[in-house]
């Protein structure tokens, strides 16, 4: 029986340590830049999932019964790799190899199940379909694993997301939970300016998903919605309202940080902010 | 049930390659526990209605959504399911091209893709439903084997081989009902190993898919004007049979490739890529569909428009051969 308060504390610590790894990776990327903004917006979601919710063992990333996690918005990989580091699936030494030639950790995830990376993602709009295939396989074999898929809100511009979306409810996949990182930005501007999707929540509801909106940085919100899980016969969509670049004063809600270089000075400032919890 | 013999060859020829695929599916459903066949709302066109009834737990229709089709198949494959997808060739290869690249090529998830009614056979429905680009596109993606069976008997063997193959396979079905028989009796089919159907030392005709039967007819016409003609069934476009092509270069004065596909990027190009690397290779005549979309029309009329009937192929070969000797 889980102790909710303990779990929330655990997640908070997990997320804080993840942010340190993310800063280190971003610094290691140097002049290659990194997708810091979109990696930071999902940290609290992935911390909640890997730090508490998922049935997952970082020392055995290929465990048959594991809950599967798919980062459909592959450019958010900093928020994924950091979670895998904290889970133990990726060694902390690998962090500084980010984006080096030959590294396991490059700018978009490359499938490597030995270190917990389920699929290669990066071309937007594909991850939910993969998750549906994995979820169907699980149901066929009456395996109890759940499948978590994180999508970007900009990613929801892709028609393939909606092909997948309508099929998940058609197939009654109640072992599938998707999360949209609703940070209201995409590569070149706000979602509203580039392609106004209106109410994303209403769209998912109309596609037959049980849909819940949460504060994507509030651990209690996230924990409660994931603990509650799906209702029978329906996949669950969690619209996580987030801030791109969350956690640091220079990056929060600043779309320059979609893909940018983190300087040493910014890195130091960010570390201090983490220590002092300047921005929560 | 799926043994190749004259009676079955005749039966399958009558119903065509799509319905034959439906029969193979039944056999696969019976023998493979963890099989799933996925379609995009084309069960009736793929001969899969009986399969759907008999093995509903092994059948999945994703609706008219080919990107989702390949994505789901790849997700299933990643969990060890033996996944087969099928829809009409243009949609099977082009609508979900990037999913094929990322999921099957880059991530190496093993899926067998069956492209229905490729080439010109659906010409009365117009070029949205013809497919003259699929060999070229599939060939260009690393990690995808590309097979183009010559007749319905070879369709059976190709699908059976694809299921066992170590990587994803695209199988291109051509021809219609009453698809002419090339193989009446059982033979050994191996992915990557072309089959010599006739011997000759003037011209080597390398053909694929429904053009293999035409090539045999062409050989008869050429022999009647004293042009000694070999015929090779190049059922696997990728990996192309490099050894067979080397041997052909030693024994022929002219290499001719014949395909119901664009002259860009298909069989002809694959063979030319080999010839370009062989010292003193003979000249090559690439026969196929020129770089344009034509008018709609019947299969026979469209083949005639593109000079892919046996008489037209033979005439073009004779003309070219006379320039060489």
Write structural notes for this entry.
The complex is a heterodimer of chains A (280) and B (325). Chain A has helices at 4-29, 36-40, 43-53, 78-87, 127-140, 159-170, 191-195, 200-206, 219-228, 264-276; strands at 68-71, 147-152, 176-182, 185-186, 189-190, 210-215, 236-241. With 280 residues, chain A is of the alpha/beta class. Chain A has a five-stranded parallel sheet with strand order 1-2-3-7-6, with helices on both faces. Chain A has a two-stranded antiparallel ribbon with strand order 4-5. The longest helix of chain A is centred in the first third of the chain and has 26 residues, at 4-29. The mean pLDDT of chain A is 96. Chain B has two domains: 6-172, Rossmann fold (3-Layer(aba) Sandwich); 195-324, Rossmann fold. Chain B has twelve helices and twelve strands. In chain B, strand 5, helix 7 (152-164) and strand 6 form a beta-alpha-beta unit. Chain B is globular and about 60 Å long. Chains A and B meet through helix 5 and helix 6 of A and helix 3 and helix 5 of B.
Q: Please give the count of helices of chain B.
A: 12
Give the termini distance of chain A in whole angstroms: 29 Å
CATH arch. level architecture of chain A:
3-Layer(aba) Sandwich
How many domains of chain A? The number is 1
Q: What is Rg of chain A?
A: 17 Å
CATH class of the largest domain in chain B: Alpha Beta
The pair of chains with the biggest contact is: A-B, 27 and 26 residues
Elements of chain B, N to C (H/E) = HEHEHEHHEHEHEEEHEEHEHEHH
Major sheet size, sense and barrel closure of chain A: 5 strands, parallel
Sheet with the most strands: spatial strand order of chain B:
2-1-3-4-6-5-10
The CATH H-level superfamily of the largest domain in chain B is Thiamin diphosphate (ThDP)-binding fold, Pyr/PP domains
The side-by-side strand order for the widest beta sheet of chain A comes to 1-2-3-7-6
By oligomeric state, this entry counts as heterodimer
Query: What helical percentage do the residues of chain A reach?
Result: 40-55%
Poorly predicted runs of 5 or more residues of chain B: none
Overall pLDDT confidence of chain A: 96
Structural class, judged by helices and strands of chain B?
Answer: alpha/beta
Rg over CA atoms of chain B: 19 Å
User: What is the CATH class of chain A?
Assistant: Alpha Beta
Q: Count up the helices of chain A.
A: 10
């Amino acid at each position: 029986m889980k102790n909710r308060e303990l779990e929330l504390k655990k997640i908070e610590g997990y997320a804080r340590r993840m942010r340190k790894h993310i800063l280190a990776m971003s610094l290691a990327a140097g002049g290659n830049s990194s997708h810091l903004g979109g990696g930071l917006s999902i940290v609290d979601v992935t911390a909640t999932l890997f730090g508490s919710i998922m049935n997952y063992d970082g020392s055995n990333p290929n465990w048959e019964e594991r809950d599967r996690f798919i980062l459909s918005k592959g450019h958010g990989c900093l928020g994924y790799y950091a979670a895998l580091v904290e889970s133990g699936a990726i060694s902390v030494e690998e962090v500084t190899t980010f984006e080096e030639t030959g590294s396991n950790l490059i700018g978009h995830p490359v499938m490597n199940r030995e270190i917990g990376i389920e699929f290669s993602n990066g071309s937007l709009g594909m991850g939910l379909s993969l998750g549906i295939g994995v979820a169907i396989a699980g149901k066929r074999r009456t395996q109890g694993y759940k499948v978590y898929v994180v999508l970007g809100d900009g990613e929801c511009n892709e028609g393939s997301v909606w092909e997948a979306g309508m099929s998940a409810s058609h197939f009654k996949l109640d072992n599938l939970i998707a999360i949209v990182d609703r940070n209201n930005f995409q590569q070149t501007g706000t979602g509203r300016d580039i392609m106004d999707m209106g109410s994303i929540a209403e769209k998912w509801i109309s596609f037959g998903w049980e849909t819940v909106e949460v504060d994507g940085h509030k651990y209690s919100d996230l924990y409660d919605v994931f603990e509650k899980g799906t209702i029978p016969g329906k996949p669950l969509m969690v619209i996580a309202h987030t801030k791109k670049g969350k956690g640091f004063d220079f990056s929060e809600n600043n779309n320059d940080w979609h893909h940018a270089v983190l300087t040493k000075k910014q890195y130091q400032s960010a570390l201090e902010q983490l220590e002092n919890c300047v921005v929560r | 049930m799926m043994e190749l013999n004259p009676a079955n060859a005749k039966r399958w020829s009558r119903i065509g390659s799509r319905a034959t695929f439906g029969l193979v599916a039944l056999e696969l459903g019976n023998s493979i526990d963890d099989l799933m066949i996925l379609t995009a709302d084309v069960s009736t066109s793929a001969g899969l209605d009986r399969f759907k009834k008999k093995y509903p737990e092994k059948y999945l229709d994703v609706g008219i959504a080919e990107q989702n089709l390949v994505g789901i198949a790849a997700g299933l494959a990643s969990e060890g399911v033996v996944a087969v997808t099928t829809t009409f060739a243009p949609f099977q290869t082009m609508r979900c091209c990037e999913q094929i690249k990322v999921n099957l090529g880059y991530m190496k998830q093993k899926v067998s893709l069956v492209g229905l009614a490729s080439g010109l056979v659906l010409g009365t429905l117009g070029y949205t439903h013809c497919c003259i680009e699929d060999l070229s596109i599939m060939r260009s993606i690393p990690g995808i084997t590309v097979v183009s069976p010559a007749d319905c008997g070879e369709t059976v063997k190709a699908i059976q081989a694809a299921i066992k193959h170590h990587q994803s396979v695209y199988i291109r079905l051509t021809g219609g009902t009453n698809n002419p028989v090339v193989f009446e009796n059982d033979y050994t089919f191996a992915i990557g190993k072309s089959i010599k159907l006739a011997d000759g030392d003037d011209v080597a005709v390398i053909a694929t898919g429904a053009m293999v039967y035409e090539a045999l007819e062409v050989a008869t016409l050429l022999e009647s004007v004293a042009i000694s003609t070999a015929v090779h069934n190049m059922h696997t476009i990728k990996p192309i049979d490099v050894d067979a092509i080397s041997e052909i270069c030693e024994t022929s004065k002219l290499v001719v490739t014949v395909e119901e596909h664009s002259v860009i990027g298909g069989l002809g190009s694959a063979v030319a890529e080999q010839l370009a690397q062989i010292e003193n290779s003979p000249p090559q005549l690439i026969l196929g569909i020129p770089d344009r979309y034509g008018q709609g029309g019947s299969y026979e009329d469209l083949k005639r428009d593109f000079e892919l009937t046996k008489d037209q192929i033979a005439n073009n070969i004779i003309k070219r051969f006379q320039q060489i000797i």
